[in-house]
Amino acid sequence: MSPGPPSEAAAAVVLTADDWGRMIALLCARDGDIAGAEDALADAVESALRAWPASGVPRNPRGWVYRAALNARRDVWRSAAARTSVPLDARAHDAAADPDPALAFSELPDARLQLLAACADPAVNPASRPLLMLSTVMGLPARRIAEGMILPAATVSARLTRAKKRIRASGRSMRIPDRSELPERLLAIHEGIYGVFTVEWAHAESDLRHGLIAEAVFLAELVAELCPDDGESHGLAALIDLSSARFAARRSGGDLVPLHAQDSRRWDSARVEVGEEHLREVLRCGHIGRFGLEAVIQALHMQGVRTGRTDWDALLRQHDHLLRIAPSLGAQVSRAAVLQQARGPQAALHALDELPRSAGAYQPAWVVRAHALRALGHSFDADSALERAISLTTVASERRHLERERRRPRGAQPGPIQAEP
């Protein structure tokens, strides 16, 4: 290696969200010390920034960073403090030190599920669990989490800081539970898996086989396999499978293609079949919850695209049921979009007017309002609503789509809106 400029070292040491989450899962898989793993990884990145400008960037930057963090964790495990508080199992701790970093990374899917289960510990504040999962386990930045949860980024950062301080102050590690404890933690695990899927879905541009969307698909399938008689686990897997099956059709030349305009021939038919099989398993289990209902809604929308005949009344019934068992702002806005097709744009506007104040910062609510206003011929108000939606849009492809909608001739009717995951 030859010395390189600081900028080269800084570029090489950047870890993707997937890299960060995978390394954290490896580093704390043995003792559940999430805070310790984060500190070790952050220190390793700082060490790289100091060392690489002089020594040169190594051929495997990720492996270098992981190895440095792992060495720091091994020092802790072997320290006098650790020996007096936790029995040292050299075989267990050294098992995390795989000499081939690529091999170590390939072992992570199960380890990451274990870490999600650790964050779902009933002793952890319920409001903090999804944040810890998305930030620490999945490696998502606070800004991205805030967008997905419709919260200010400062609020997410503050909650994460408080949660980690409480864990450190308690002196307890995030213990990795065994399989028998999985059922009591399923609800939180479901939320974590779906959370990372929805947050990443809007931003994913590359091959679905890579990155955190692929990880969410894998984890949803794994949970359904581990809990074959849990209807919601199958419901989550169905929802993610049916949504991800449309990945290739959701953009054209980098531009967003709404569900109603997608070419169903570009959908992944094998993934659709898997999702539909999970839906049948939901019925077999005899219980349908939030994720099962959202999967049914997704399936009805997709059937409408394939056949050209969407059953809006059936969709409205499913949304009403969903709001009874799992009310949320997203479900209310999605129902308003369906209501426009089933009962007319005035009914949709009435439903939007009844939303809570927080809807003022929720981009989909303004999109649905703009469509309803345009359908009523209120072009000026529709343009204003679209302007507000564009101002709240952070994804470039969505922004371009809305700007095209704004340029449509006045009086032109937009297509129906279907809910994305």
Low-confidence stretches: 86-109
Q: How would you describe the shape?
A: globular
Strand order of the largest sheet: 1-2
The number of distinct helices, counting runs of at least 4 residues, comes to 22
Helix content: 55-70%
Rg, Cα atoms, Å: 23 Å
The residue-averaged pLDDT reads 82
Characterize the main sheet: 2 strands, antiparallel
Estimated share of beta-strand residues: under 5%
What structural class results from the helix and strand content? mainly alpha
Q: Strand tally, please?
A: 2
Name the helix and strand elements from N-terminus to C-terminus, one letter apiece.
HHHHHHHHHHHHHHEEHHHHHHHH
The rounded distance between the terminal residues' Cα atoms is 46 Å
Oligomer: single chain
Describe, in short, the structure shown.
With 421 residues, the chain is mainly alpha-helical. The chain is built from 22 helices and two strands.
Describe what you observe in this structure.
InterPro entries: DUF6596 (IPR046531), RNA_pol_sigma_r2 (IPR013325), RNA_pol_sigma_r3/r4-like (IPR013324). Residues 185-281 form the DUF6596 domain. This is RNA polymerase. Residues 398-421 are annotated as: Disordered. Pfam families: DUF6596. The chain has 421 residues and is mostly helical. Among the domains are: 1-106; 116-156 and 178-221, no CATH class. The chain is 67% helix and 1% strand. The chain has 22 helices and 2 strands. Strands 1-2 form a two-stranded antiparallel sheet. Strand 1 (251-252) and strand 2 form a beta hairpin. Helix 2 crosses helix 8, helix 10 packs across helix 11 and helix 15 packs across helix 16 (290-307). The longest helix has 22 residues, at 34-55. The protein is globular and about 70 Å long.
